[in-house]
């Protein structure tokens, strides 16, 4: 018991301290050159950090699918987009306030995930990935074709603010949106932690390792995977609704299969099977995606020879290079590298000999 208590204190105190620091950032004037566009209290910096938090929460929801249950879905963006567009449409076409509208959209996201999961999970492996991709592509087509003038097509759909509290509208309230994004990340992390430690989570991990053995001992792999699938999609829907408030609008790019592949890259970058790895991978990817664009168009890159200027002026080339380097030299992602480093530090010759 004392060992468990010590471990909880060792892990919990730094996490609590980090959470307090993050919560206080909008009240502090801390410059992070090259990382943030200004001081931490400025709207631009808070917007970027809030985007990192929501992306990390979304990566955690994908971690449930891929890291816990071993389900490689190419359609996870469908539920993220359902949260974004669902809430945008409800607020635009009705007079329902924000919270009841969010509850209604969440129910719709759960129903959508149940139907798609029930069909997709009839197959496994690459067939499952292709079926989820087909559903996601269908959703993207519906969004872009703007059936019934609901989604705005390629132009997207602006946030109707009539039912949204004033504290969550406008640049002057960016700090409130920052705190909302942080709260969503914490809530999603706690839910993912609870699921992993629950009976369903242990069963999902067993199914990932050996589905046949689970079936032989009386387990129900299909039902287990369906439960995890719906839970992960529900979390993605919640994150999508918060994303709509942060961005003040919906964009069709959030419904593409490419967006799901981006989530896969984040999870692999951080380390498959690691919660904090998914968070770190998502935050790092988002920062690189946002800040490398500025680097690519900077005067420093413009003054380089053509052989260097051409590749460095493409942000996606830089992101791809970083990803390839991590895959080649850091197997297990950032989480795996940290674990190996901690293991090396823990190998004290005197203790080993004892």
UniProtKB/TrEMBL annotation:
GO molecular function: branched-chain amino acid transmembrane transporter activity
Annotated InterPro entries: ABC_transp_permease, LivM-like
Name of this chain's protein: Amino acid/amide ABC transporter membrane protein 2 (HAAT family)
Record membrane topology: Multi-pass membrane protein
Transmembrane segments: 45-66, 73-91, 97-116, 123-143, 177-195, 222-243, 263-288, 295-312, 318-338
GO cellular component: a single term: plasma membrane
Chief location of this protein within or outside the cell: membrane
Location within or outside the cell: Cell membrane
């Amino acid at each position: 018991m004392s060992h468990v208590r010590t471990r909880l204190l060792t892990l919990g105190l730094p996490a609590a301290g980090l959470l307090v620091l993050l919560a206080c950032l909008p009240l502090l004037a801390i410059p992070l050159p090259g990382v943030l566009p200004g001081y931490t209290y400025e709207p631009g910096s808070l917007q970027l950090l809030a985007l990192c938090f929501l992306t990390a929460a979304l990566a955690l929801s994908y971690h449930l699918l891929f890291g816990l249950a071993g389900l490689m879905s190419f359609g996870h963006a469908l539920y993220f987009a359902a949260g974004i567009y669902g809430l945008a449409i409800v607020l635009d076409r009705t007079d329902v306030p924000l919270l009841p509208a969010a509850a209604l959209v969440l129910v719709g996201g759960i129903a959508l995930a149940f139907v798609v999961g029930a069909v997709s999970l009839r197959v496994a492996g690459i067939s499952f990935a292709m079926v989820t991709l087909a559903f996601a592509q269908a959703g993207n087509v519906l969004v872009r074709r703007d059936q019934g003038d609901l989604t705005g097509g390629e132009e997207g759909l602006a946030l109707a603010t009539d039912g949204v509290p004033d504290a969550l509208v406008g640049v002057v309230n960016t700090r409130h949106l920052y705190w909302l994004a942080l709260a969503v990340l914490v809530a999603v992390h706690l839910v993912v932690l609870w699921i992993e430690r629950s009976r369903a989570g242990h069963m999902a991990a067993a199914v990932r390792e050996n589905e046949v053995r689970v079936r032989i001992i009386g387990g129900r792999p299909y039902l287990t995977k369906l439960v995890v699938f719906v839970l992960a999609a529900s979390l993605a829907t919640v994150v999508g609704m918060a994303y709509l408030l942060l961005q003040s609008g919906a964009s069709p790019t959030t419904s593409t299969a490419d967006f799901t592949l981006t989530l896969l890259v984040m999870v692999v970058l951080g380390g498959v099977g690691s919660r904090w790895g998914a968070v770190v991978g998502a935050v790092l990817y988002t920062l690189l995606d946002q800040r490398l664009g500025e680097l690519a168009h900077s005067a420093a890159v413009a003054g380089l020879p053509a052989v260097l200027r051409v590749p460095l002026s493409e942000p996606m080339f830089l992101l791809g290079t970083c990803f390839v380097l991590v895959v080649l030299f850091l197997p297990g992602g950032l989480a795996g590298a940290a674990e190996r480093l901690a293991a090396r530090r823990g190998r004290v010759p005197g203790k080993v000999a004892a």
